Amino acid sequence: MEFGLWEKYYKEILDDFGFSRSGDEKSAKLLDEILSTQGCLTLDELSQIVGFSDKFIVFGAGPSLKEHVLMLKENYDLKDYVLVAADGATTAMIEERISPDIVCTDLDGNLDDILLANIKGANIAIHAHGDNIDKIAKLPSFFNNVIGTTQAQPIGNLYNFGGFTDGDRALFLCTALGASEIILAGMDFGDKVTKYSRPNLEVDVGTADEFKRKKLFYAEKFTNWINENESVNVVNLLE
Which helix (H) or strand (E) holds 82? Predict the structure, then answer.
């Protein structure tokens, strides 16, 4: 999605959630400064790394995640796909000894598992927004193969492919990498949260609060946008 189009949705999100654009821009500037010092991937470099396939599987952190991980592990040759984890979904994959090729994260998930995935070869798409600037500031220097993203105007080393949540941003990244097919696993658009998306949750699956429900609404909205506007076949395992 071109930024000119994305910005219309972005303004809607800022108004709906009461987010600060200046906060997003401040976080993006900090991430860009860190990546300028530590080094980072370009989109072309990432495209070469995952160029072994134009078929992708995106793992979201919804209630169906573990069921889908086990089903895919049993019935699919996962080596034929680029495996993309949306933040906390990394943990479910690690539990089943599956290493993602890409992790899309705003650093809310289990960082130990994301680091382990990184050590095993995962490329990390780190997203900067106003609410995670403290986490960006503490960004471990031992992450490697990082590509940076922002939901504001892209600057320096940062990209904006479109998307709001880790899950739908992962889909936009896949389309930017030339995906012809994207399978959605664990992408439940409803009113439930899991321990994978909320590591401090005391139960495996809980009821989403209003904030999370609104985020899931936008995740579904942008997933539908990709399905309707991009030349990629999107298959949701829930359907």
Answer: strand 82-86
Backbone φ and ψ for 104, nearest 5 degrees, come out as -100, 120
CA 57, CA 64: separation in Å to the nearest integer?
14
Cα separation of 187 and 6, whole Å?
Answer: 22
pLDDT number for residue 42: 98
Q: Which residue has the tokens 């050590």?
A: 119
Indicate if the pLDDT at residue 144 is higher than 80. yes
Take residue 4 and report the two structure tokens written for it: 């000119």
112: nearest Cα among 148, 73, 142, 78: 142
Task: Return the SS3 of 203.
Answer: coil
Q: What angle in degrees, to the nearest 10, is found between the helix axes of 3-17 and 210-229?
A: 160
Cα separation of 21 and 12, whole Å?
12
63-112 pLDDT per residue, tens: 999 999 999 999 999 999 999 999 999 999 999 999 999 999 999 989 99
